[in-house]
Automatic annotation (TrEMBL):
GO cellular component, one term: apoplast
Keyword list, A-Z: Apoplast, Copper, Lignin degradation, Metal-binding, Oxidoreductase, Repeat, Secreted
Record EC number: 1.10.3.2
Official protein name in the record: Laccase
Chain's gene name: LOC100837670
GO molecular function, one term: copper ion binding
Cofactor binding annotation: Binds 4 Cu cations per monomer.
Function of the molecule: Lignin degradation and detoxification of lignin-derived products.
SUPFAM superfamilies, A to Z: Cupredoxins (SSF49503)
Enzyme class: oxidoreductase
Catalysed reaction equations from the record: 4 hydroquinone + O2 = 4 benzosemiquinone + 2 H2O
């Protein structure tokens, strides 16, 4: 492979959206940030200079980082933040992955504006397992806040309540005609009749799972999270934050209109407020008749809480599983974990004017197995490398919930959680199964769980409480989809499997940033294997120090 070099200058830049001009953190002055292009097998070297008045780190979402955990990026997990004025070089190889991934800041809520696509082409001369598209177009779905997202989460954490929601959804940064003074700020995808396009879709929104559809056009899904899937068609897609999806769209040979709406709207079951708006981009046929741009044919999207539509869509994913790209599902399990995933509440410790804005005068918290994750003050990976756990790590993370109840029924009154920085130690090469069970505390809500350092197979899913006796028999161990982010369904569960063959400390968390901020997170500590090429190498010399 080649070495591909990029420079990321993190700077403030002025942008105007929804009639508001403001200064936002950007990479190289661009919003969304620059596209990274590599081939499978290449080394990627990204030189980051932090020129803003805040800490920053970068995460290469979905990249496995085999023995390159120092480049993974989550703040206080694999590195301390790059402080203002400092630099850090991320260097890692892309091994055994191809398709669309993305990069984003992994400190506080900075990823709201610090994100961009990562396109991984197959090795030179290796074709796609589907007809080569005429053109490929990265399409990042995002969320725009008129307020400073850093101020939004700060306020929420101080008052204990839910954060203010975003003001618009965006396509490659453009909100489009359904929002105030944004008609001229519309993303247009120009297509030629009869040609096939591959949309490299990325959900970069902070807090919303999204429905996606194109009026009068059927989409063929060929890839998810940089793994090939058995192609299937759909009129409406569902993409959770963190997930990527490559879809083929064939422009019709002749059409009734010269332009069609591409629409995005939220899917949620939250009991709180959410950004319930629909964003529009335009699929524009060339040659184009401009008069047709009024009354765009619009797709009909499911209702915001249509869980059936979501279940129907997610049930279609299967690994491609052919001779060249076989599914390699672990058939036996060394260690089984049962994790409850959900919201909870905390006693109000520092009330603002005597109250906390969470439910019943509490503050919101979120947890896995009743433990709400606390970010340490130093990097866990560094602590692990130096075997200096004291004062950093607490007891091991529980392998099953501390309090058992009917997870999908009416939750008990006492929904308080404990807090801590706790990890699960794993011996090298352990085969792990995790059943992630959604809980109904504060209302059932799906949680897009993202695992760093690994892809996992989604071997089972269902509604209600997971039942080991019956549900295990229904697992798909033949061609389950391989992903790095999976939404734990509303009032249901999902079972994943992976082999812990990548030494390091790997965070697993909800990719709704507000839930991550509330502690819906844990980490796996995967020990070195016996062979030299199974060990984590020493940290790079320029790894940022914690103050
Ligand atoms: Cu895309 Cu830990 O994040």
């Amino acid at each position: 492979g080649l070495t591909r070099r990029y420079t990321f200058n993190v700077t403030m830049a002025t942008v105007t959206r929804l009639c508001l001009t403001k200064s936002i953190p950007t990479v190289n002055g661009q919003f969304p940030g620059p596209k990274i292009s590599v081939r499978e097998g290449d080394r990627l070297v990204v030189n980051v200079h932090n020129n803003i008045n805040n800490n920053v780190t970068f995460h290469w979402h979905g990249v496995r980082q085999l023995r390159s955990g120092w480049a993974d990026g989550p703040a206080y997990i694999t590195q301390c933040p790059i402080r203002p004025g400092q630099s850090y070089v991320y260097s890692f190889r892309i091994v055994g992955q191809r398709g669309t991934l993305w990069w984003h800041a992994h400190f506080s809520w900075l990823r709201a504006t610090l994100h961009g696509p990562m396109v991984i082409l197959p090795p030179l001369g290796v074709p796609y397992p589907f007809p080569k598209p005429y053109r490929e177009v990265p399409l990042m779905l995002g969320e725009w806040f008129n307020a400073d997202p850093e101020a939004v989460i700060k306020q929420a954490l101080q008052t204990g309540g839910g954060p203010n929601v975003s003001d618009a959804y965006t396509f490659n940064g453009f909100p489009g005609p359904t929002y105030n003074c944004s008609a001229k700020s519309t993303y247009k995808l120009k297509v030629k009749p009869g040609r096939t396009y591959m949309l490299r879709l990325i959900n970069a929104a902070l807090n919303d799972e999204l429905f996606f559809a194109v009026a009068n056009h059927t989409l063929t899904v060929v890839q998810a999270d940089a793994s090939y899937v058995k192609p299937f068609t759909a009129n409406t897609l569902v993409i959770s934050p963190g997930q990527t999806m490559d879809v083929l769209l064939t422009a019709a040979a002749s059409t009734s209109s010269s332009a069609f709406a591409i629409a995005v709207a939220p899917y949620t079951n939250t009991v709180g407020t959410f950004d319930n708006t629909t964003a529009i981009a335009v699929l524009e046929y060339s040659p184009q008749r401009p008069s047709m741009l009024r009354n765009l044919p619009a797709p009909s999207l499911p209702l915001y809480n249509d869980t059936n539509a979501v279940t129907n869509f997610s049930s279609k994913f299967r690994s491609l599983d052919n001779a060249r790209y076989p599914a390699q599902v672990p058939m036996t399990v060394d260690r089984h974990f049962f994790f409850t995933v959900g919201l909870g509440a905390d006693p109000c410790q520092s009330p603002i004017n005597g109250t906390c804005q969470g439910p019943n005068n509490t503050r919101f918290a979120a947890s896995i197995n009743n433990v709400s994750f606390i970010m340490p003050k130093t990097s866990l990976l560094q602590a692990h490398y130096q075997r200096m756990y004291k004062g950093v790590l607490m007891a091991n993370f529980p392998t099953a919930p501390v309090r058992k109840f009917n997870y999908t029924g009416t939750p008990p009154n006492n929904t308080f959680v404990t807090h801590g920085t706790r990890v699960v130690p794993l011996a090298f090469n352990t085969t792990v199964e995790v059943v992630l069970q959604d809980t109904s505390i504060q209302g059932a809500e799906s949680h897009p769980l993202h695992l760093h350092g690994y892809d996992f197979y989604v071997v089972g899913t269902g509604f209600g409480n997971y039942d080991a006796n019956n549900d295990t028999a229904k697992y798909n161990l033949v061609d389950p989809v391989k992903r790095n982010t999976i939404s734990v369904p509303t009032a249901g569960w999902v079972a994943i499997r992976f082999i812990a063959d990548n030494p390091g400390v790997w965070i697993m968390h909800c990719h709704l940033d507000v839930h991550l901020s509330w502690g819906l997170s844990m980490a796996w500590l995967v020990n070195d294997g016996p062979l030299p090429n199974q060990k984590l190498p020493p940290p790079p010399a320029d790894i940022p120090k914690c103050s």
